[in-house]
Amino acid sequence: MRRFRRAIVAVLALALVAGAVYAIVAILQRSETLVSERCLAVIGSESYELATDQAANASLITAISVQRGLPPRAASIALATAMQESKLRNINYGDDAGPDSRGLFQQRPSQGWGTEAQVMDPVYATNAFYNGLIKIPGYETMEITQAAQQVQRSAFPRAYAQHENMGRAFASALTGHSESALTCELRMPEAAGDPAAVVEELTAAYGPQPATVQGRSVQLDITGTQAWAVAHWAVANAKSLSITQVDVGGQTWNREKRDGWIASAAPSESVTITVSAPTT
Predict the structure, then answer these.
(1) Do the Cβ atoms of 247 and 264 come closer than 8 Å?
(2) What local confidence, expressed as pLDDT, does residue 8 receive?
(3) Which domain holds residue 137?
(4) Domain identity same for 76 and 155
(5) Is the pLDDT assigned to residue 116 strictly greater than 80?
(6) Which range among 13-27, 103-117, 125-139, 246-260 shows the weakest confidence by mean pLDDT?
(7) Residue 103 and residue 41 in contact, taking contact as beta carbons nearer than 8 Å
(8) How many domains would you assign to the chain?
(9) Helix and strand totals (H; E) in the chain
(10) Among 57, 94, 111, 156, which residue's CB has the most CB atoms within a 10 Å radius?
């Protein structure tokens, strides 16, 4: 009888432990804190990952190339260069070889790139890089190390090559030449989004856009590669701008579902960017 009681107690204890483990796992699976935030560019069988702040900077660098009418190769070169120089972060320090280097491209005021404030401005720094790049005859067909080195004059010119595939993948997505190729896995926003802020950042990246604000959404009457460029830009900037959904070309990216691009319930060729609602 005593053995029977002990067996019953053991079974009940195991059931309680199993129930507790199940409850803990369920809670953890629903926890926003466990979401590993990142952005991915997937081209064919290849996948490349950036942190959310890196992806946002990559989207600006690429958007400026689109605004200037440059070929995707220019964005590929710029992204690989910025990854090598600053890890695609707008840093305010240099290294032993260039102690006054600053910004996304580690441009040196002492070498004529501009003032420290200018090279720390991502828009200025990116345009300065492209200004140098387009002066190089045939840069579109050069090896990335050769083209980047002629602009940057780096002490480590071969280092740019290691980032070429990443640069090409993100440039292909962010120029709109690869559809539904860039996605970000994000936690839900902690604050309401501002459609006006989305328009402001879009304008800084691409120049004036045919944007209309309706409630919490920004609608853009654009199609084709330009539409996908802007849509991917919106996903890459979803964290900082509290964007929750992007619709374009019959596809939808939804921040909460975290399942990438899926077929839209209401197909449309134009772009709609929706931000989070105020919390109540």
Answers:
(1) yes
(2) 54
(3) 41-174
(4) yes
(5) yes
(6) 13-27
(7) no
(8) 2
(9) 10, 9
(10) 57
